[in-house]
Write a structure and sequence with these properties.
408 residues, alpha+beta, Beta-Lactamase, Arc Repressor Mutant, subunit A, 3 domains, 5-stranded antiparallel β-sheet, 5-stranded mixed β-sheet, elongated
Length: 408
């Protein structure tokens, strides 16, 4: 028969901890003394906040976290931790997990919220206790953690104040001068703004990526924008080498976590952050479709971005150059591949060999198609690169709008 928990006594223990201004670890020690069930709390980056269980513990996932102070990135990704956390966040309260990594160790786990923000997760093992009681206990402990963190003196520390200042700066069109100056003292120029998107609502993933990218004492600050977008501002960059390095790193991040990333141009004054954010948002808007996780830079894709925006606003008929329209009509009529060939050629710095490799065709095939493109448009493609780049961008944007309209 399952053991019942004394929830009245637990409530008294939690209230005492809150009134006595205990740390979260002290709270967990008291909770364990009351319910005698293993418990753990870790933040959104899977760094250990507190735990209460005898060691070595039989559940390796909790034991490893207790031993090292955190779960490694490989552990998080290979064991599907983010999926569990997203389920907790979506429900907004504790639930029973008894499958996957929890198959032999059923537990009640739930989110810890502070002022509407997800800050941590709390888990309690069921063992021989009544599941409904453990669920209630997990929800009670989560709320107590939130209250302790809210009243914790450390929450008013400079680092927390800086984080809130960063949120104001990143999210809003303008920020008070003192906020801008606070951030500028800690994070010097040059700056770069990145917008990271997920296909759907994946708050836990974004919170985790935020923790990975914006470590304490690092050169990046960030915050969530809604349930599927992350804003990150990098600082202290060199406008030459660092841009290439950052794009390389962001591409790795995009592929690893399944993100679509838009990147602004460099800027040196935080008063320009609104413009940089708009650049990154426009670049991110080019991501998606069938391309998979990808990184788009505003500067590198300027013509493409302008073309897509113009076509979306004015319509394909007005914006797409007649030369590009003629190529699209030829493809539709005869099943040719002039548009994708032109697109690949432009994307690979007008190098037929590189375009051929991307298209998985022979170099001569690309050369022949370019010759035929020149005949159709009546001009050498090398002489009208900007027009063709913008035109293809407009065409693709129009096609995207058309598909979205069909779905609706």
């Amino acid at each position: 028969m399952s053991r019942r928990l004394d929830l009245v006594q637990l409530r008294a223990v939690l209230l005492d901890s809150i009134m006595e201004k205990h740390t979260v670890q002290e709270l967990f020690d008291s909770v364990y003394g009351c319910i005698r069930l293993p418990a753990i709390c870790f933040d959104v980056s899977f760094r250990l906040v507190a735990y209460a269980f005898p060691r070595p513990f039989v559940f390796p996932h909790w034991e490893n976290m207790a031993a090292t102070g955190h779960a490694s990135d490989d552990t998080v990704m290979s064991n599907g931790y983010l999926g569990y956390q997203e389920m907790m966040y979506a429900k907004g309260e504790a639930q029973i997990f008894d499958w996957g990594t929890c198959l032999s160790f059923p537990q009640a786990c739930g989110p810890v919220m502070l002022d509407g923000r997800l800050i941590a997760y709390c888990g309690i093992m069921l063992e021989n206790a009544e599941a409904a009681d453990v669920l209630e206990a997990a929800n009670m402990v989560s709320k107590a953690i939130s209250l302790i963190r809210k009243s914790d003196g450390k929450e008013a520390a400079d680092s927390v104040l800086l984080g809130r200042s960063a949120e104001l700066l990143l999210l809003h069109s303008s920020a008070p001068r003192d906020i801008t100056e606070t951030v500028a003292k800690k994070y010097p120029p040059q700056y770069m703004f990145a917008v990271m998107k997920t296909p759907g609502t994946e708050v836990s993933k974004l919170q985790y990526v935020l923790g990975v990218l914006c470590t304490e004492g690092g050169s990046a600050i960030g915050c969530l924008k809604g349930d599927n977008m992350l804003y990150v501002m990098y600082s202290g960059l060199d406008t030459g080498q660092d841009m290439r390095l950052m794009m390389f790193k962001l591409t790795g991040t995009a592929l690893k976590y399944g993100l679509y990333v838009g990147v602004s141009d460099f800027f040196s004054d935080l008063s320009q952050i609104r413009t940089a954010r708009e650049q990154a948002l426009l670049a991110a808007d080019c991501c998606g479709g069938d391309s998979g996780p990808v990184v788009y830079g505003f500067r590198e894709n300027y013509s493409h971005i302008v073309g897509r925006c113009a076509a979306g606003y004015f319509g394909q008929e007005v914006c797409v150059p007649p030369e590009v329209t003629a190529l699209a009509m030829e493809d539709k009529k005869n099943g040719t591949d002039y548009i994708i060939t032109l697109e690949a050629w432009l994307a690979h710095f007008r190098r037929p060999a590189a375009a051929a490799e991307a298209l998985h065709v022979h170099k001569n095939t690309v050369v022949n198609r370019l010759q035929r493109i020149a005949e159709i448009i009546g001009r050498d493609p090398d002489e009208c690169v900007e027009m063709l780049t913008a035109g293809v961008g407009m065409l693709r944007r129009a096609e995207t709008h058309s598909r979205e309209g069909d779905v609706k």
